[in-house]
Amino acid sequence: MEITGNAEESHQNKFALGVDSEHKATEFKLFSFAAPHMRAFHLSWISFFACFVSTFAAPPLLPIIRDDLDLTATDIGNAGIAAVSGAVFARIAMGTACDLFGPRLASATLTLLTAPAVYFTSISNSAVSFLLVRFFTGFSLATFVSTQFWMSSLFSGRVVGTANGVAGGWGNLGGGATQLIMPLVFDLIKHIGANRFTAWRIAFFIPGLFQTLSAFGIFFLGQDLPDGNYSQLHKSGDKHKDNFARVFHHAVGNYRGWILALTYGYCFGVELTIDNIIAQYFYDRFNVNLNTAGIIAASFGLANIFSRPGGGILSDVVGKKFGMRGRLWTLWIVQTLGGVFCILLGKVGSLSVSIAVMLIFSVFVQAACGLTFGVIPFVSSRSLGIVSGMTGAGGNVGAVLTQVIFFRGSKYSTETGITLMGVMIICCTSVIMLIYFPQWGGMFCGPSSKGTTEEDYYMSEWTSAEKEKGFHRATLKFSENSRTERGIKKVESAPTPTPDRTPNTYV
């Protein structure tokens, strides 16, 4: 026993951060670059940031691009829809790739493959070609899934909301930063001597290069798991190479993932919609100039520097005290308040008041994104990638639906569309009340009276034959570590499984 203890202690000492039995970090040190945990954190958010900059590089320059390519309001609306619809299926595919091949390879590959579409934007000469480059560039937003999967693979449940929130939030920050970056790059190129119709084209080489470099950084410097990359662990036998059909089955068969995909469509999906329309909204409605509209629009996205991370941190704080039930209640409250302020944004007619309401709205809607991915890591252990992909895809579907319904063509004014979008947020968020974990409970009900444990819930994803081969060992460790979701008040009363207990079947 002494030898085993010393070996385990020696094994854990190789990590700069404290770790649990899965070697996931139990602490989050923002200004550390220690491998593998914090290095992967910084690589993931920077890469996702680059993809966000590329995807939303066009909106702040739309008044110029519109004149150059003779785009109609419908053309612009269709291009905005294309930019966020491209990632719908890509995010599900990314989740699958993460489950089977690891987040490092999946993220680097997609980031590199979509970079050419950013460069090709510079040669767009029609509404169709502009729509196509925005469509294919939008595929890069699927790197969000690898970012969240990676953080969930490297950080323990007690800090996973924080890690997911900061990585996702700082990545989303690219949607605001590009509202500042692209007008500045455009002005610089024009100042050097290019005319405005040439300057906007050259400007797209900056986000394209940034995205390319981030892909190489992920590939050469990242690591999938605390103990190595998927390919190495598969070869050594330390990690089971999972079966796609079973992983997919447990993901799509878990209703909690579908509910969170719907609600995420009305926090992150709304954020994507606002990124597409807000600069032009202020430019047209309040007659501000291009740079001012860009600064106002940027302030919405730049709130991600603290709002989405704040949501993730808040999820961990309430989870520590009130468990999963606290996470669900907080998500519902914050996202519903986001809907209220979205309604107000469409109603107010003063520039200064609109900016103030927009900023408050941005904090709530982005915090809800962080809160969502404080819950996602606990929906499934075996199918985390696909569940993350489904949820991420739900965000894009929400963005597509809201833009098709409210911001395509002239059926609604932009301010009316924003108000109606707020109503949809409130309605769709209410389904969070249906989420129930038998081992922890839901918003209105406590844990199952059958004495269900974390092992019962997560081990039901493995067959008896797979357990005999030891494929379930990582899930068993995850089950033990997820007991923190009982909350302080539930720890003493929650049942603790015995080693020979046969888990009940729960999905």
TrEMBL record:
Q: Does the keyword Cell inner membrane apply?
A: no
Ranges of biased composition (kind: Basic and acidic residues):
480-492
What domain of life is recorded for the organism? Answer: Eukaryota
Region spans: Disordered: 479-507
Record keywords, A-Z: Membrane, Nitrate assimilation, Transmembrane, Transmembrane helix
Membrane spanning residue stretches: 43-64, 100-119, 131-150, 170-189, 201-221, 255-274, 286-306, 326-346, 353-379, 385-406, 418-437
Gene3D superfamilies, from UniProt?
MFS general substrate transporter like domains
Q: Which PROSITE patterns does the entry link to?
A: MFS (PS50850)
Specify the protein's topology with respect to the membrane: Multi-pass membrane protein
Which family does the UniProt entry place this protein in?
A: Belongs to the major facilitator superfamily. Phosphate:H(+) symporter (TC 2.A.1.9) family. Belongs to the major facilitator superfamily. Nitrate/nitrite porter (TC 2.A.1.8) family.
Q: Does the keyword Transmembrane apply?
A: yes
- Domain annotation Major facilitator superfamily (MFS) profile: ranges: 40-441
Provide the protein name.
Major facilitator superfamily (MFS) profile domain-containing protein
Places the protein is found: Membrane
User: Main site of residence?
Assistant: membrane
